[in-house]
Design a protein that fits this description.
Cation/H_exchanger_CPA1 (chains A, B); mainly alpha; potassium:proton antiporter activity (chains A, B); Sodium/hydrogen exchanger (chains A, B); homodimer
């Protein structure tokens, strides 16, 4: 069971131990760069184009160049991209926070569409990228990849970047698009990871119907068990806090408990070979629906903003990281010998990404629209274009999968591997910068005035005018919409099947879940207003 | 500049990469144990004896035993103690939070006494432990240590555990003792680290007056530059937030900025070979005095509780870690061959710790009392006993320094080294459990009714009755005491020199510092009450 707890930043120099101060150098530089990104991101906030992700990517690349110049072309990075840091430390807070802050009503209203895009769409995209790249590479005369590599490419480039999507789409301005694209991103990440693992485990070079069935079964098993695990841990946290903390609150313990339970859901999922991304996402949703209502006023404010801040830091960290690693000179040297091939590989892959996503978004939107009766609920063509476009961004998940497939311990000596890594980097940089920058203008052009759904805009306006904004309401800002929507739900019940589900869920939630696990209106120990509450209940 | 970013928990098993799931196992187990400690700590809260530190230590030891049994005596730990994790990741949040939440008035009123105890006291303790252990070990016939080792022992066992002290002394019940013992602990940690580094750098086997002067110079240089760096970064954060965020607040950015700046202060200090502990402590004090007042209401609540929660998790982590590592079988096997020697070493060291601290606390209290005119401000003998007793706890800093001196990469093969490591563990466990458990009863016995300082108790009572407790006031709870104490300060000005300093500082603070860096009463952009503020200013 023993293992060495070595440090992410290597040994500590400075005042303790050896005089080797390089790691402390690196941490200091990295923290300073993170701060720079936040400052610049803040100053550019009014800008129509930029956001922190792109700023971080650019700063990362610039720093890489500076290091390259100062070290005389020997090295461009202060760190080696490690997909494990990404998957164990950086991704969980981001995805958890997304679940914690997501507008649950929007998300569940579109749940079927999201799952369709996320699961079936990713599969379509995977098949097209696999077949297309194999065909085109053989035409181009690139022969260093085997079938397994092509399958891996399909999985790697099917992973939409949910992190960047969070930044280019606004939950307030375009709630439908946000919940569709982001929700899809989460399911899609999970699907890609499942596919990728399946490729590494099964022998997929000869696909038979039995293997296809096994794959489907494995996916369904993973999807449901991961979701259930997340829900179970979320409910457990709600129950523990409701039962044990009854009447005698301690804010710091509550906050610690929520943080640790959230992280526990992720590592447990990884331990059982499930999808940690799905688990921690649903854990976040359940925690915001139940646990969050059982804690003190101070804990609510703290968790809401602390989770957001940790997620924010992780996001910037990832982009800075990707930007800095992009310039690693070793792999570019190998590739530089045959620039035409390199450009060919990148172009083919980019084309396949565009094509694969088009082949999934437009047909699936058509199918999804068939099940919607009201025109107002259908995904309009212009919206489909935005969904297609925003989902083209490839990010850190693609990077991590590519490094996992094509490198050994961060090094890229083999020529074929160097090509694959560099074209992954090219596509990640290109798609993040170009598609990322152009999403906001595209939305303004296609949907002037953000007309999205007028009723939701009204809800948002109401939410904004509530007293104690961000304190008394749900982190997902659900409170205000509920009271208004309840009669609408009853009407919808007669016309739409998904709302019947929602109606029964609401009954079940009010009748059983909330009395047991707590939740809005079922926190039995503190009567009165939030202000009174913080007077009497605060630690 | 390149280095490998390996993981604290080794490779990630689970859904990505290799099937080796041991690290995920370990993380999951560790997170689950942390949660268990929080739950048990909560359930035992009403207990007079226990606290989370001791719970964590006990759970760590029990888990160690379980692992030892299940692996058939081969291994007792899921991790190897690494002083770098401790110094880079776990210690900074604890010390920063201590600075952030410390009652500044108490701290600065006793600043001279604290520095006296922390610097001179540690030096006395160091000399006594060094000389005493060398003498007694030669009598016992233990001959495997050289002068350098004895010097290192002096530094290692002079480090009071400020983390455990935080838990056994209450800032509310015994404010004077808390600020003296905890404040001393911070300075003392720094002194020990300085001494320890000096030992590893200088040739101290032949101490001359020139080396002693160099050492003194080095200590003074370190003390002042570290403090200045902390203050500078704290002020920078206040200035940035005040200037750039004027009128358009973003809570998540503010919280991220404060977190990163705090961490930056620590790593920068380490980078410049200063004392990160001192730097981050003073950065915390400055941030709570200026920066904290420049941010939104939500950010104040969030930072107050998020920093406390992170510190809380780190504390439990450390004790769990020490408890689990304590049972590592390898070093005990070596020691088990000569149990008498082992017991002798531990007893000698424990005796020296008791003696060394007595020789510093009682004489220095006497000296400190000479400078106090009012009897009410003098440190009474009973209080001196508590200061002596609570400061006997040796904790993670001692462990970290001992591992640094006596192991190579976490392994303890040499017999002499095994003895030193096991007796360090023995003393840490013994002092934490015995001295830690007995501190609260001792205080109740010596100071029935916590009479400490009646005026402060009144202030605390007033603070508790303030509206929006924990939201509208300073993290150090200074707000309420200030208004009441100001006339008292003027009176004191005539009798006591330290209060003259305080008076001029207040003038300087109000006249120059606060207008420039913000602070209570000088946040120019938000008029009105905290409630109005969160209405208009919240993100």
């Amino acid at each position: 069971m023993g293992f060495d707890w070595s440090l992410p930043f290597g040994g500590l120099g400075g005042s303790i131990g050896e005089p080797d101060a390089a790691p402390v150098h690196s941490i200091t530089l990295f923290v300073a760069l993170l701060l720079t990104c936040i400052l610049i991101g803040h100053l550019l906030e009014k800008s129509r184009w930029m956001n922190e992700s792109i700023t971080a990517l650019v700063i990362g690349v610039v720093t890489g160049i500076l290091i390259l110049v100062t070290t005389g072309g020997k090295s461009s990075r202060i760190l080696i991209f490690d997909e494990e840091i990404f998957f164990i430390y950086l991704l969980p807070p981001i995805i958890f926070n997304a679940g914690f802050q997501v507008k649950k009503k929007q998300f569940f209203r579109n749940f079927m569409t999201i799952t369709l895009f996320g699961a079936v769409g990713t599969l379509i995209s995977f098949v097209i990228i696999f077949l297309g790249s194999r065909k085109l590479f053989s035409i181009l005369g690139i022969d260093f990849l085997d079938t397994m590599d092509f399958l891996a490419l399909g999985a790697i480039f099917s992973a939409t970047d949910s992190v960047c999507t969070l930044q280019v789409l606004s939950q307030e301005d375009t709630p439908l698009l946000y919940s569709l694209v982001f929700g899809e991103g989460v399911v899609n990440d999970a699907t890609s990871v499942v596919l990728f693992n399946a490729i590494q485990r099964f022998d997929l070079s000869h696909i038979t119907s039995s293997i296809a069935l096994q794959l489907l079964g494995s996916f369904l098993y993973l999807f449901f068990t991961s979701t259930l695990l997340g829900i179970a841990i979320g409910l457990l946290s709600a129950y523990i806090i409701k039962k044990l903390y009854f009447g005698r609150h301690s804010t710091d313990r509550e906050v610690s408990l929520m943080m640790l339970m959230a992280y526990l859901s992720y590592v447990m999922a990884e331990l059982f070979d499930l999808s940690g991304i799905l688990t921690v996402f649903f854990c976040g949703i359940v925690m915001s629906h139940y646990t969050w209502h059982n804690v003190t006023e101070s804990s609510r404010v703290t968790t809401k903003h602390a989770f957001a801040a940790l997620s924010f830091i992780s996001e910037i960290f990832i982009f800075l990281y990707v930007g800095m690693d992009a310039l690693d000179i070793e792999k570019w040297r190998i590739v530089a010998k045959s620039p035409a091939t390199s450009a060919g590989v990148s172009s083919v892959m980019l084309g396949m990404v565009l094509l694969g996503r088009a082949a999934s978004v437009f047909p699936l939107s058509f199918i999804s629209n068939l099940f919607k009766k009201s025109d107002n609920d259908k995904i309009q063509f212009k919206e489909q274009i935005i969904i297609w476009w925003a989902g083209l961004i490839r990010g850190a998940v693609s990077m991590a999968l590519a490094y996992n497939q094509f490198t050994r311990a961060g090094y890229t000596q083999l020529q074929g591997n160097a090509f694959m890594i560099t074209s992954t980097i090219t596509i990640v940089l290109f798609s993040t910068v170009v598609f990322g920058l152009a999403t906001k203008p595209l939305i303004r052009w296609l949907l002037p005035g953000h007309t999205a759904r007028s009723s939701e805009l009204e809800d948002d306006a109401k939410a904004l005018s509530l007293p104690l904004l961000g304190i008394s309401q749900d982190p997902g800002a659900e409170t205000s919409t509920d009271n208004i929507q309840r009669p609408v739900s009853l009407r919808m019940l007669l016309t739409k099947p998904t709302n019947t589900v929602h109606y029964y869920w609401r009954k079940f939630d009010d009748g059983f879940m909330r009395p047991v696990f707590g939740g809005r209106g079922f926190t039995p120990f503190v009567p009165g207003s939030p202000i009174e509450r913080s007077l009497h209940g605060g630690k």
